[in-house]
Design goal:
Elements lengths: L2 H25 L11 E8 L6 E6 L8 E2 L4 E6 L2 E10 L2 E5 L10 E7 L5 E4 L2 E2 L5 E15 L6 E15 L7 E12 L13 E6 L6 E4 L7 E11 L7 E11 L1 H17 L14 E2 L8 E2 L2 E14 L33 E2 L9
Parallel strand pairs: 1-18, 1-19
Antiparallel strand pairs: 1-2, 2-3, 2-6, 4-5, 4-7, 5-6, 7-8, 7-9, 8-17, 10-11, 11-15, 12-13, 12-14, 12-16, 13-20, 16-19
Helix pairs in contact: 1-2
């Protein structure tokens, strides 16, 4: 990945963010007093069965966790007609119960929410978009000299970069894209003196962080968006066995694009998108009985497509240490080497795409 390629992608990204920089002070209006907590709802409906989730809660101080709201009623409407319900799975987290169907291209969708205290909210209706682009995902693993101090000292690091080329389906059509990056890797507990080795755990993390990867297909007309650098990571024990990069591309409408553009600017300057912001970002939820109420968050109506690339530790050109190599264990062995479900976001259920 050359410096020229990196700069090229950053130019594209900066072009898509240029509108934000010039209009941020006009869009955001701080109306709440310091210490106020606001209702935040973020959810989506896609043209598939994955990612159709909803969070309902209250904002927090910066760095603190949000307070979830349980017992809400959330109904999905298609062309104004109720078709499904988001059912609560854990406090504040709801999932769409639409087992045998998915949202359809060209239909209008909105969310209707009733809180336990009786307050009601509706999202602004939005049309499900169609296919706009196709991603091709690859990785580059290499030894890189990294400068570690101001004196210019360099050390060798084994780095892996996630690169994406995006082919545009119709250059003449306006469209808006957003990408999220998810990692999934297997974790093997320490091998014991037993006939059958312990089963692995599978760990999944959204590694997008504070980055908001966007592309404005209205302002920039190209046949292919080449060499997008979405992730750079040092190769560690996560890559010892099987590791997957998943690139989740969503196609959205202009209003959602402008929302995420603004969120990206604010989150990069202060913290999580669900922290209590210095300047609340207006979303697309409205309280019809109290139009002046400020509600954070957004209900996305998006076409979603996932592309993956598999990385095998034994296929890399350099040694990758396994996480739990000792037998018998050392004194300071991590507890997850005997119980890998202690790892955050881990499961013993193998993902459906494993070894595809």
């Amino acid at each position: 990945m050359t410096a020229k390629v990196r700069i090229g992608f950053l130019v594209l990204l900066s072009l898509s963010l240029s509108f934000l920089i010039s209009t941020c002070s006009e869009v955001v209006d701080l109306k709440t007093g310091q210490g106020d907590r606001l209702l935040v709802m973020y959810g989506k409906v896609t043209d598939g069965l994955a990612g159709n989730e909803l969070f309902i809660g209250l904002t927090s101080d910066i760095g603190a966790e949000q307070e979830p709201i349980s017992g809400a009623e959330a109904i999905l409407l298609e062309d104004g007609v109720p078709i499904a319900t988001y059912r609560e799975r854990t406090p504040g987290n709801y999932r769409l119960d639409l087992e045998n169907d998915s949202a359809r291209v060209g239909r209008m969708y909105e969310l209707q929410v009733r809180l336990p205290d009786g307050r009601e909210y509706r999202s602004i209706p939005a049309e499900m978009p169609g296919l706009a682009a196709i991603d091709k995902v690859r990785f580059d693993a290499s030894v890189v000299e990294v400068e570690v101090n101001q004196a210019g000292l360099e050390v060798s690091r084994n780095l892996i970069q996630l690169l994406v080329d995006t082919e545009i389906v119709d250059q003449e059509k306006d469209f808006y894209l957003k990408w999220d990056i998810v990692e999934t890797y297997s974790f093997q507990e320490r091998i014991r003196n037993t006939p059958i080795p312990p089963p692995p755990c599978f760990v999944t993390n959204n590694t997008t962080g504070q980055n908001v990867f966007l592309f404005n297909g209205e302002e920039i007309k190209v046949p292919v968006i080449k060499d997008q650098l979405f992730s750079t990571s040092e190769i560690d024990s996560r890559f010892a066995f099987d590791y997957y990069f998943s690139v989740i591309q969503t196609t959205m409408n202009r209003d959602a694009y402008e929302y995420w553009k603004l969120i990206g600017q604010i989150s990069n300057s202060q913290g999580s998108i669900f922290d209590q912001p210095a300047a609340p970002v207006p979303g697309n939820f409205r309280n019809p009985n109290a139009p002046e109420e400020e509600v954070l968050g957004y209900f996305e109506v998006v076409r979603s497509d996932t592309s993956r690339v598999r990385v095998r530790g034994d296929q890399l050109d350099f040694f990758v240490s396994i996480p739990c190599p000792t037998l018998p264990p050392e004194t300071n062995e991590p507890p997850e080497c005997l119980a890998c479900l202690l790892i955050k976001n881990s499961t013993d259920v193998q993902p459906y795409f494993w070894f595809e």
